[in-house]
Design a protein that fits this description.
Elements: H1 5-17, H2 22-30, E1 41-43, E2 46-49, E3 52-55, E4 59-62, E5 65-72, H3 79-93, E6 96-98, E7 101-103, E8 108-113, E9 123-129, E10 135-144, H4 150-155, H5 173-178, H6 180-200, H7 207-224, H8 229-270, H9 272-290, H10 295-302, H11 306-318
Parallel strand pairs: 5-8, 8-10
Antiparallel strand pairs: 1-4, 2-3, 4-5, 6-7, 9-10
Helix pairs in contact: 1-7, 6-8, 7-8, 8-9, 9-11
């Protein structure tokens, strides 16, 4: 059985770290018009039933509405039953007594299919027959991500779908990797996506979102393209390489500016040599405080010896109580 943890992890990471990206998805599916800065309340995603623990992907509250998004990477036939079980458990948690009658409210739910086939329905439906003869049709919309083109995604700001975009090519990976022309075409497509994404998230405030999103795109691409090393490396260079360069340049620039200012001040008092050393210390210190880069990566991008970086890190730990708050991270990649 395929391990789908990578898809679940990416899905949950976006919901937890980039919740604003889910707003356009909710607008697309449920025909709402929430703004992207709408307040979102995230609720626990575990419910217990007689059959054991159920783990759901997301319950989100916007205003007085509750939304449930489920991420699914296969077209299993029992998804409708699973969804009604999940949603009934969620509805029971909010049960309220009013006028001698309990009332429960089901969430607005949908299933995001990362893969689909011709039998994947537009709606999952379950018919509920009551003992008194009443019938209730429980209907859940489905979203087939691979039906959305690159243009659709950017036009509707469905950036939430981008990490899974590569999955539409997974059946063709071997053929693409064996054909230089097809390889170049796929690389050019992802270069275009990277450019569009940069335009969409161009402000300083959105740089972190841009960085995180491209990192997740690279993670899924690495998984899907694992058997084609050349293709995997080229796509990775577009995503991961550019992200690392952008983040590094930003932190280095901050470190250099602060280091030079302090270095000049110290240099006037202690001489030029001391000022240069102070600049180096300040640059390394700022990178350690503002990133999770390893000592090797910092050495590569600054040109400073790795032992100098380790020395600064050690000094920062020793002076932690006297200095500014410093991240308690290991100098090695976690």
């Amino acid at each position: 059985m395929e391990n789908n943890t990578i898809f679940d992890d990416v899905f949950r990471t976006m919901l937890e770290k980039m919740p604003r990206l889910v707003i356009p998805v909710i607008n697309e599916v449920f025909h709402t018009s929430y703004s992207e800065d709408e307040k979102i309340n995230q609720y626990r995603n575990e419910h217990h039933t007689k059959s054991g623990e159920i783990i759901t992907d997301s319950y989100l509250g916007i205003g007085d509405k509750l939304y449930h998004l489920e991420c699914e990477s296969s077209s299993r036939g029992n998804m409708g039953i699973r969804m009604i079980e999940y949603d009934f458990a969620a509805a029971l948690e909010g049960a309220a007594l009013a006028e001698d009658m309990f009332e429960i409210n089901f969430p607005h739910s949908c299933v995001l299919y990362l893969r689909h086939n011709q039998n994947t329905p537009d709606y999952l439906k379950v018919k509920i027959n009551m003992p008194d003869g009443q019938h209730v049709i429980y209907s859940i919309p489905t979203v087939k991500l691979q039906e959305y083109t690159k243009d659709d995604i950017f036009k509707k700001r469905l950036l939430f779908f981008l990490p899974f975009y590569i999955m539409r090519y997974e059946k063709e990976v071997a053929a693409i990797g064996a054909d230089p022309e097809k390889t170049d075409s796929l690389v050019q497509e992802f270069e275009s996506i990277a450019r569009e994404l940069k335009r969409e998230l161009s402000s300083d405030e959105e740089m972190d979102l841009y960085t995180r999103l491209e990192e997740l795109m690279e993670r899924v691409a690495d998984y899907i393209l694992d058997s084609e090393e050349n293709l995997k490396e080229r796509i990775g260079d577009i995503m991961g390489g550019k992200v690392l360069e952008l983040e590094t340049d930003k932190i280095l620039e901050l470190g250099r500016k602060q280091g030079i200012e302090q270095g000049i001040e110290q240099g006037l008092e202690r001489g030029l040599e001391q000022g240069i050393e102070q600049e180096k210390y300040k640059t390394i210190k700022n990178i350690l405080m503002n990133s999770d880069f390893s000592t090797r990566e910092i050495a590569m991008f600054t040109g400073y010896p790795e032992e100098d970086i380790l020395s600064v890190h050690k000094q920062m730990q020793e002076n932690m109580e006297e200095d500014c708050p410093i991240r308690k991270t290991s100098p090695q990649r976690r």
